[in-house]
Amino acid sequence: MNKRKYYAFYPIFSPAFAVMRIAGKKIEEYAKQYLGGRMLDAGCGDRRKRYLVRRYVKEYVGMDIKKKKVDVAGTLYSLPFKEGSFDSVLCTSVLEHLNKPEKALREIYRVLRHGGNAVFTVPLFWHLHEEPHDYYRFTRYALENIFKDAGFEINKIEPLSGFWTTFLCEFLYYLRETLGGKNPVYCVFALFLNPLIMLLHPFDRSFRFTWLYIVSVRKP
Asked: Domains in the chain, start-ordered, CATH in brackets?
């Protein structure tokens, strides 16, 4: 499978063009370092993340509450797997949509084998989305608490952006919402700002304004 298939979901005129490339690159980096063996993609959606991680794991299992385009249908509050069923777990941009994220973390802990790693992405600054099921934003200190309370050891918590990346991406989402995705003004801004964001991102170090954290944890 080719990771280009993943990025094809986010063309140049998408307000997600830059953020998904930044996040995708980091997810792939963490997959290489932390994921492997039999891996659960918890809250996989349409399983598009498999294009990023599949070559690093022996078996990919995509699970979501939706029954279409998943390997297993189920809820993160009661995962349909035995204890220690997976060598690693991926869970991206899911915890903010759960009204009981701590319960889901305990379930992920249960199905992960001892010594196994899990990788999560969670937002700090981001607009409302997938309403009404959008409940939380997390600081790094909140993340430390909820993962430790679930029993995990923290390998790493890393912010993915600074102020300008967050601001310019959100500005594009604002323009699309107010003008429409096919509006010529929006399209010109997207065509200009998306490459600019990618150019500025490596130098944007004001991490207190990150839109997203990536977290790696381990079950001892």
From this structure: 3-218 (3.40.50.150)
